[in-house]
Amino acid sequence: xxxxxxxxxxxxxxxxxxxxxxxxxxxxxxxxxxxxxxxxxxxxxxxxxxxxxxxxxxxxxxxxxxxxxxxxxxxxxxxxxxxxxxxxxxxxxxxxxxxxxxxxxxxxxxxxxxxxxxxxxxxxxxxxxxxxxxxxxxxxxxxxxxxxxxxxxxxxxxxxxxxxxxxxxxxxxxxxxxxxxxxxxxxxxxxxxxxxxxxxxxxxxxxxxxxxxxxxxxxxxxxxxxxxxxxxxxxxxxxxxxxxxxxxxxxxxxxxxxxxxxxxxxxxxxxxxxxxxxxxxx
Length: 282
Ligand code: PAF
What we know:
Blueprint: E1 2-4, H1 7-19, E2 24-29, H2 35-47, E3 50-55, H3 65-70, H4 75-84, E4 89-91, H5 95-98, H6 117-120, H7 124-139, E5 143-147, H8 151-164, E6 169-173, H9 193-198, H10 200-214, H11 219-231, E7 236-245, E8 263-271, E9 274-281
Parallel strand pairs: 1-4, 2-3, 2-5, 3-4, 5-6
Antiparallel strand pairs: 7-8, 8-9
Helix pairs in contact: 7-8, 10-11
Bound molecules: pantoate.
């Protein structure tokens, strides 16, 4: 595996691969890699000739300075995981390399970005689109891989791809969980021992909520019950739980209003000061 720190070297290496007719898969990450990232890398490895993994903690997507400052950074372990996974190029640029000038672009993402994480983290999705569009421009991947834990992020990236006309296939990969159900996240390392014990309750409540639907509750009633149950667990506070159409991200008043991709319930929960997100399909 070659570690690349400059856009010039990245474009040179990938230009050669492209001119040989090889397919390129990109896995964008912010590092602190875990088995969830590894599943994306494995999928990219199986589907492409050349695999690039970017590791870049993107400052423009953090709307909270403390969150950026405390975001875990584990470069040496990340390198070992990627090398062992058969990655060809680990792209590890500096902030100056990615943003030689401030990125002032504003993406007109529309309704998909106006709910849930949109209002809760103003500017977050615009920052995600800034970095992902830059990476797509640099790598020109045939396919790019994203985890379904960040369900709304995938919908937003699909919208950005449509707006910008990128010719890239967005591949979404299932959530990877700990044995007790907790969705893998780079933020899990910041949980206290007590927080780590209680956090799997989020998935348990979500999984059981599928039965509430089967028993005849409408989406609004399921939302209320899920919030009540999560908030009754010690140390957990729900920021939002919203049942939405799996493509448009718009809230559903009735199950029948969901389109062909069905309904998904998206939750954000504070466990102490750690913000955890998860979701469940209905
Ligand atoms: O999901 C993430 O880790 C980030 O939002 C991404 C897509 C790598 C962009 O920085």
